[in-house]
Amino acid sequence: MDRGVAAEETLGDAPTENEPMNDFEHSLTVQAPGQDVFDFVADVRNMPRYLPTTQSAEPQGTDRVRMKGEAKGHAYDADGFLRQDRRNLRLEWGADEHHYSGWLQVEPHGDAAQVTVHLTFQDRPGKGGYAVSDADIREGLIKSLESIRNLVEGRGGKVEPEAATARTDYSSRRAA
């Protein structure tokens, strides 16, 4: 299948009416060699440049990373694992509490590369007074990939999704 420069999204099984999705996947083509794309995304110092809400990322020894940022007005400071498989151009990560994990795969196609990101949530984000919807997660995933493409192709910078940075105003959600 020719995906060109358009993004293609594949989502897990559809949830029931009141059940949120737990798996999200999105792919995007970047006009750069696969190894160049992987080298960029695998460098922990670059992560705040393309991950929504992330303000800093610090290596914490072998296969460990600490991330700090703010989402919807709520600060976070979390660490977890980050594994790099340079031979297969693949990253895998997850939270120590096992509530969140994901992977990124770069597939070279000549002078371009398809980048696919997959996220899995065991417990949904949003505890503590703010909710993260499926749409918020999808938008963040898409904007991450667009940021990677912009930075690697040299045609722009980080694209922050509105859903990831906007403060939630619960006072405006009154029953009509």
Structural account:
This protein has a single domain (8-156), classed as START domain (Alpha-D-Glucose-1,6-Bisphosphate, Chain A, domain 4), CATH 3.30.530. The protein is 21% helix and 36% strand. It contains four helices and eight strands. The chain has an eight-stranded antiparallel beta sheet.
Keywords:
disordered C terminus; eight-stranded antiparallel sheet; alpha+beta; Alpha-D-Glucose-1,6-Bisphosphate, Chain A, domain 4; 176 residues; 36% strand
Strand order, sheet with most strands: 1-2-8-7-6-5-4-3
The CATH class name reads Alpha Beta
CATH architectural name: 2-Layer Sandwich
H-E string = EEHHEEEEEEHH
Q: Low-confidence runs (pLDDT<50, min 5 residues)? A: 1-18, 168-176
Helix content: 10-25%
> Cα distance, first to last residue?
47 Å
What composes the largest sheet? Answer: 8 strands, antiparallel
Q: Provide the domain count.
A: 1
Mean pLDDT: 82
Shape: globular
SSE arrangement:
Layout: E1 8-11, E2 23-30, H1 34-42, H2 47-50, E3 54-59, E4 64-71, E5 74-85, E6 90-95, E7 100-109, E8 112-121, H3 134-153, H4 162-165
Antiparallel strand pairs: 1-2, 2-8, 3-4, 4-5, 5-6, 6-7, 7-8
